[in-house]
Amino acid sequence: MTDVSIVVVSYNTSDLIQKCIDSVIKFSDNFSYEIIIVDNCSSDKSAEIIKKKYSDLILIENKSNVGFGRACNSGIGISNGEYVFLLNSDTILTNNAISYFLNFMRLNNFNHDIGVIGSCLLDSKFKTIHSFGSFPSFKGEINRLFSNHDKENLIDKFALTGFQEVDYLTGANLFFCKETVGKIGYFDPDYFMYYEEVDFQKRMAINNLKRLVIKGPKIIHLQGMSFDATMTSKKKFMIYDSMFKYFNKNVGFIENIAIRSLYLFFYSPIKILKNPFKIESYYILAFILNLKKNLKN
Predict the structure, then answer these.
(1) Tens digits of residue pLDDT in 69-110
(2) How many structural domains compose the chain?
(3) How confident is the model over 231-241, as pLDDT tens digits?
(4) Same domain as 278, residue 182
(5) Is 191 found in the same domain as 244?
(6) SS3 letters for 8-35?
(7) Is residue 226 part of a domain?
(8) In which domain, by residue range, is 107 found?
(9) Residue 76 sits in the same domain as residue 159
């Protein structure tokens, strides 16, 4: 059996994904691996470039953009590895990161109680950036929307243990046993993009599986480079639409209504009054569209 199946979803990132693949090949030693690229119908000839340059990897060419979670599911579904490593196309490995993940799991997962591990991601200047967070909740949304303390406290407690438990890791690098998917299921296909990895790890938490950030792997994440920067409105809508889907599925009825009311009656009006032409109007649109879907169901 292959040790690790590395699954990378690609969408119009022909230059970036080559750097990502090259970094994986350069720094991956002392274990067996396969690279599976899932291309979401890119229009920048990503698939053609990958086929010509990397003949040994596996390429899935979707006929349309099916979203991040569905694309990950395709890659996981055909993988042959004992472990799966989901890696964003806009990431670059700068050391043998995957070996760190593999060794950690083999040394620490005897009880099969670790759901997923990841690293503290770095920007291009090697400064730590957004890598994990707390599960969304009403209290958490109040803190995030109305305070200046909406960023997670970055990890500084590695000295003793080399790891720290968190609610969830961002989807840019997720390392887990393939058998975990048999326990909790694949990514929920209802999410097109955003919050699918939060939902995935929420199911791990329900099944008492730990989510850990570990010390050692060095991975640069060029955030947002896999999403068209000119589509700001669309991106904003997708984020909040996915967020409301997460709340529908993972919080109680009363908390769900409280969160929606927070956005609909307080946060959105405040933002729109300050700037009527700003994208915050999409908060309400996402709310209305999601509510209609709930009524139909």
Answers:
(1) 999 999 999 999 999 999 999 999 999 999 999 999 999 998
(2) 2
(3) 456 777 788 88
(4) no
(5) no
(6) EEECCCHHHHHHHHHHHHHHCCCCCEEE
(7) no
(8) 2-221
(9) yes
Residue 13 lies in a domain: yes
Which pTM does this prediction carry? 0.88
Which tens digit of pLDDT belongs to each residue from 7-60? 999 999 999 999 999 999 999 999 999 999 999 999 998 999 999 999 899 999
Question: Are 64 and 202 within one domain?
Answer: yes
Instruction: Show the tokens assigned to 116.
Output: 């997923």
- Number of Cβ within 10 Å of residue 7's Cβ equals 27
For 138, other C-beta atoms within 10 Å of its C-beta total 18
**Residue 199's domain is classified under what CATH number?**
3.90.550.10
Pair 175, 101: CB distance under 8 Å: yes
* pLDDT at position 229: 47
Among 151, 198, 150, smallest CA distance to 170 is for 198
Q: Are residues 174 and 256 in the same domain?
A: no
Same domain for 106 and 18: yes
Stated as kind and residue range, the H or E segment containing 60 is: strand 58-61
- Per the DSSP assignment, residues forming a β-bridge with 219 are 93
Shared domain for 205 and 180, answered yes or no, is yes
Do 285 and 260 lie in a common domain?
yes
CA distance 147 to 130: 18
Kindly report the backbone phi and psi dihedral angles of residue 181, in degrees, each rounded to the nearest multiple of 5, phi listed first: -65, -35
DSSP secondary structure string for all residues of 172-230: TEEEEEHHHHHHH-S--TT-SSSSHHHHHHHHHHHTT-EEEEESS--EEE-TTTTS-TT
Angle at CA 178, nearest 5°, toward 176 and 184?
A: 85
SS (H, E, C) 145-183: HHCCCCCCCCCCCHHHHCEEECCEECCCEEEEEHHHHHH
Among residues 25, 188, 204, 173, which one has the least CA distance to residue 86?
173
